Amino acid sequence: MVVGQQDKKVIFIVQARMRSTRLPGKILLPIPFGCGKPILKWITDALKTSTYHQNIIIASSTDYSNDTLIEFCEKENIFLHRGAEHDVLSRFTAILSKNDFDVVVRLTGDNPIIDIQKLDLALENHFKSEADYTSTFGLPLGMNFEIINTNALLSLQNENLSNSDKEHVTLFIKNNSAFHKNVFRFSDIPSSIRATIDYPSDFLFVSSYFEYILHNSKISSFETLEEFVVKFPWILEGNNQNFQKKEFQTLKEEIEEAIPILDKIELKKVVAFLSNNYY
To answer: Cβ(128)–Cβ(2) under 8 Å?
Structure first.
């Protein structure tokens, strides 16, 4: 830890909910499948090993489907905050308004593969940069980090926010030049590995990875994940076709994203039409 950073108060907030349209209840599914510990516990156990671990809060909603999280949090001695279902940002600001923390790391309950050494490096870089917001680049989808200064997030309460801004927490900061933003690069090339859990096929991929690390007594990290896919390259075929939801600012951006997806499933006429009419 760099001198002068040890006085920074860091909180890890994990946004999590049971109501998922693609894979309901996924955050409490056991990994490895059928015999492991809940996805959410993999996340909280990993965060407890961070140099900067001071507090972990699960930010969920008041929807009845999340009642099952009460037992989990009580058992793990982790505080559960419940707020609006779709206004996720309000969950964060409510937590931060009642607690004295300088920096928040935003995590989600469907991303259980956390490289703690890289998280600590990202936090050190954030402090050095004196940025309001730090994102990371170069790790697989589901493994990058978002680090935000508390005062930056709390200032959003005074802004005219869209529903998307409220749902996606950091969207307004990312799109607003008034905030000092920083990107910490682990690589200049984006990873092709999909390490998030949205679909059943994602769950099976991640479950296989954790079975691999447990069987081989490995520490979960980006390097271990790369080792896993090098040994079993065919495993990537299981979920690399899955579509990741994104927020687009323009129709052109959305079409640019859609064309390669449509091309993969060989909808050639649609691809040709879009290419000819929107470029």
So the answer is: yes
- Nearest-CA neighbor of 75 among 45, 54, 112? 45
Query: How far is residue 244's CA from residue 258's CA, in Å, rounded to a whole number?
Result: 11
Assess whether pLDDT exceeds 50 at residue 88. Answer: yes
CA 209, 170, 157, 8: dihedral to nearest 10 degrees? 70
pLDDT digits (tens, 9 = 90+) for 260-277: 777 877 888 888 888 888
Task: Tell me which residue of 143, 127, 139 sits closest to 188, measured CA to CA.
Answer: 139
Name residue 162's amino acid.
S
Confirm if 27 and 140 have CB atoms less than 8 A apart: no
Cβ of 248: how many Cβ atoms within 10 Å?
12
Exposure string over 32-56, b if 16+ CB within 10 A, otherwise e: beeebebbbbbbbebbeebebbeeb
CATH class in words for 10-185: alpha beta
Q: Break the chain into its structural domains and give their ranges.
A: 10-185, 200-238, 248-279
Closest CA to 95 of 80, 112, 76, 73: 80
pLDDT tens per residue across span 171-216: 999 999 999 999 999 999 999 999 999 999 999 999 999 999 999 9
